[in-house]
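subagent[fold] <- orchestrator: predict structure for attached chain, return tokens only, no commentary.
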Amino acid sequence: MDSARSWIYLRDARLQRSLDVAEAAAAAIEPRYSDPSAERLTVYGNLINHCAVTAARLEDEDRTKDFLSSLHAVGARLGRERDFHGARFGPHTATTQAVGINVTIGKPGKALELIKSVKPGHLDGLADVARNRYQLDVAMAQADVKSYDAALDTLESVLHGAPQWARHQALPAVIVQKIGNASTARLRRVSELVGIPAIPIDSYAPATAKTAL
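subagent[fold] -> orchestrator:
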């Protein structure tokens, strides 16, 4: 319930309240190092993920790094993906979530390092939504370092693979806008899938990754 409340506050842009709820819940169930309970570790890791996402959006880089460190540590202790009480967590969730979090705090280089460690089989244990969202984070990281062709490849695969889901996401439009000054027929095609015109990035006030994530 605390996890759900935290996400509701996050979606409502009540960021500090979201962080407070998730952090308090995580502190209440934090497992000892001697506690091997996969159930407790999974729920705890899921809450720490909420904390890391929210701290990143609050632009608190120091706290975000602390939460990311805990995120990877819990994932390593679990060893594989687990699912308890609607909370899914494990080493691959920790890594894929860390990609998006690093993009949010303006560290696309670190995000790309993490992406290199993610193998196709690592995504099999993730929910469809989590897998699609990870691909959008990959596309954003690629766009941030001006790897526009790679970003378009990644984005287009999501748009074709999950068109209904992608239609309701803000991030595809942000990615297209970042690539907007590389006007090509291919970009126009992807822009049509997203539902926005492909125009030079200097021609509008662009959204940022922080507002779209």
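orchestrator: received. Logging for downstream: The beta strands are 82-84, 87-89. The longest helix spans residues 38-57.
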